[in-house]
Amino acid sequence: MFVIACKFNKEKPVIYNLVNSIRKYHETEKIVIVDSDSQDKSYFELKNMYQNVEILNVMNKHYHVGAYWIAYNAFPEEDFYYFMHDSMLVKDNLDYLKEKDFTAFAYFDFANPSNESIAKDEILKYTPYHVPNHGHAIQGPCFFVKNKLMKKLKSNGVDKILPTYSEHSDTKIGVAAYAVEGAYGIFFSNEGYNIIENSLIGNYVSLGYPQFSENYDSSWMHPIEKILMKRK
Fold this sequence. Notes:
Number of helices: 7
Order of helices and strands: EHEHEHEEEEHHEEHHE
Structural class: alpha/beta
Shape: globular
Distance between the termini: 27 Å
CATH class: Alpha Beta
Strand content: 15-25%
Strand order of the largest sheet: 3-2-1-4-9-6
């Protein structure tokens, strides 16, 4: 099942391109779009444009990770989940990813992180996981996992750690959206998965970040492309 976190912007209606790209390679697989409190919901027409597309109109305020858990709780028995941003494109068939428990879209390194940068206090409060002094964050976080791993994360309290603001937000209280990138790297590492070996496109920083901008040419990425966007 594809799970897409969507904050729709009619000036950049990227969700249409993503759904169309998924259907090019996955004609029948369920697509669940979780609306992140979009003011413009005209894109809900996608339900009528493609088969097996559902849109959860839940006013999600917890960004990508909030959307993932909403979708998982709504469909807890799916065999496999592709957790994605709406600003992505699928450029090939992804069925082979189902052979592995976990795959990250991309990663970047962190060292001596502050509490804010990886939600350290929340990890120690809600989960049994160890917080290392250095490790690998998951870009997005966008990742692709089997059901058994999602069940394990939920049983360990990961679903309680939800972002409340982004780096572009006017008010910054709670958990930063960028902090869960490091947090999810910590979760999967604690579960025994090598983030580097299980990454599709490799180290995000070495590939150009933080020089990335909305004008960055990401067309080289394969089998999934991430289009850079700045949002609050």
